[in-house]
Amino acid sequence: MQTPTPSYLTPEALTAFIRTALAEDVGDGDHSALSSIPADARNRAHLLVKGEGLLAGVALAPLIFSAVDPSLTLNVLLTDGTPVKYGDIAFTVEGPARSILTAERLVLNCMQRMSGIATYTAHLNTLLAGTKAKLLDTRKTTPNFRICEKWAVLIGGGVNHRYGLFDMIILKDNHVDYAGGVAQAIAASRAYLAGTGRQLPIEIETRSLGEVQQVLDAGGVDRIMLDNMDVELLREAVALIDGRFPTEASGGITEQTIARVASTGVDYISVGALTHSVKSLDLSLKAY
């Protein structure tokens, strides 16, 4: 599966993530490995799949191993996006035994969670078959792990929404209420962009057909979010908007309801559970 390279996956960002993650785990040394394994010992291990799903994080693994010890060598057997089953081997790693052990947990933590996210994303995508709806992630991510979680959504065939607060304006219900209403929130945001010279898309959340109509009257946005609306209300909202703006359904959408939501004709469906409620894929790094 060909996965596009998003702007947030820079070498600098990946290096910073790995550095802080290793600092958290290793601290002043992996004393278990240092105390029990001879310094000159060399060994090998393979990444064993112990479940069924979609593999993710393979491209990250060599960066982690290299950050721990550049002399470690990997032989990648299965790439990101590959459907896997129990007993499959994703890659082998060979080199200083201490280094393999030090890198092991971070590699597994990243790959297990990323694979779980990719697997669930791919599953939900199958439920959208025959509709035009695209599956979006959200900012409901694990602090300091967003880069991996967003990446995993892409591997699973989903679409990244904004990466953070800085790359898009989304006017949620609280923004609208604090601003004094739909029209006021839109006007203030447009004035802010003009005053700061920024070019950012604007999306606004609506909670009723009345708010949808207010957005249509005001204009000046790039997408309308239809939040926590039942299927019938979604159909009415999509008909009211009538293609004038892209639409996004959001709020409490599950695998039991997503197909019905997609059938309303919305352009996007955002699902926070892609990143906040997934089950990790069972993987293990085993000496052999």
Task: Report what the structure shows.
- There is one protein chain.
- The protein is α/β, with parallel strands linked by helices.
- The protein is 42% helix and 18% strand.
- It is built from eleven helices and twelve strands.
- The chain has a six-stranded parallel sheet with strand order 6-11-10-9-8-7. A four-stranded antiparallel sheet has the order 3-5-1-12, with helices on one face. A two-stranded antiparallel sheet has the order 2-4.
- Helix 8 (209-218) links the parallel strand 8 and strand 9.
- Helix 6 (173-179) packs across helix 7.
- The mean pLDDT is 96.
Helix share of residues? 40-55%
CA-atom Rg in angstroms: 22 Å
Total strands: 12
Biggest sheet: strand arrangement: 6-11-10-9-8-7
Our estimate of the beta-strand percent is 15-25%
Report the major sheet: 6 strands, parallel
Number of helices: 11
Shape summary: elongated
State the end-to-end distance. 29 Å
Structural class: alpha/beta
Q: What is the average of the pLDDT values?
A: 96
The SSE order reads: HHEEHEEEHEHEHHEHEHEHEHE
| Stretches with pLDDT under 50, minimum 5 residues | none
